[in-house]
Amino acid sequence: MTERPTLAVTVGDPVGIGPEITVRTLAEVGAGAPARGVVVADPAVLRRAAGVCGLDVRVRAVDGWDLPAEQDGVIDCFDIRELGEAELPWGRVDARAGAAAVRAIEVATRAAMDRHVAGIVTGPINKEAIWAAGSEHLGHTEMLGALTGVTRQNTMFVVRGKKIFFATRHVSLRRALDQVSADQQVACIEEALTALRVFGHDSPRLAVAAINPHGGENGAFGDEEIEHLAPAVERARATGADVTGPVPADSVFHQLLQDRYDGVLSQYHDQGHIAAKTFDFDGTISVTVGLPILRTSVDHGTAFDIAGQGVADPGTMTSAFLHGAEFARFADRIRAEYGG
């Protein structure tokens, strides 16, 4: 990759807060940022967002990745020509907005696959809107998998340099517990260790979070640790991996922050989300691992209730962009490991 990478930035749903936090982020980081951000959207969407945010910036439309010189106060926008000058109502599910969100993801992903950009940074989409537009995907991750030909991806949270992985994600807690097995844990441990290596930890240290209070208290509070988690950790350690656990969840994330580990394998969605977002909500970002391209993302929704008011906090988008700039140096590792 070039010394100063280019990142394709999608705003997500154009009638959510995505356009606002995107223009605020790029206006704030400016032309001297560690990466160049090019927004993939209709330019009118960005101009409207800049207006509601009261930003004195100019949106410059481009139609290719051989870009003109950057200028302070100018936001470059790769024109997807989906909405044109249409102004859709803020904060409402709209198939037209969903179509624009999908189109932007397709364009940005293709640019990354073709190595025109070092990676993509994504804003929040609305699932109802993309479904109304005809998308058959459950969300961003599934769409990116289809676009890149990958059938298995995982989420890596990054907060203050620490990584959190998830053994289960968007299922009920009851179903999450049903999915736990020793083989499943071994696979998740291997995926987490691989991701840590890809993202710069040459000798990764991973902790496996327990499920039950006090780690099950030797079976008094549950036997998942005895039946599944501890055997999986032992199998991983037998290969020479630096894996610890199961560690009670009320202490493992504190230990992560104390630098005992480089990452934690969380057992279910909220176990890891609550820890990360309580510690630093705006600083927590999501990286999709398993794709042959770099993808960082905000980890919040479209916030339709405040869209168009110019009050949305851009902190998570700024963090996602800056992490994208930092992780761009691993783009070749990502391609080599995940098949790009």
UniProtKB/TrEMBL annotation:
Whether Hydrolase counts among this entry's keywords is no
Membrane-spanning parts: none
Instruction: Say if the entry is tagged with keyword Endoplasmic reticulum.
Output: no
What's in the keyword line of the UniProt record? Metal-binding, NAD, Oxidoreductase
Q: Which InterPro entries match?
A: PdxA_fam (IPR005255)
Question: Please, which domain of life does this record's source organism belong to?
Answer: Bacteria
Protein name stated in the entry: 4-hydroxythreonine-4-phosphate dehydrogenase PdxA
Which GO terms label this protein's molecular function in UniProt? 4-hydroxythreonine-4-phosphate dehydrogenase activity
- The EC number(s) given in the record are 1.1.1.262
Family, as annotated = Belongs to the PdxA family. PdxA2 subfamily.
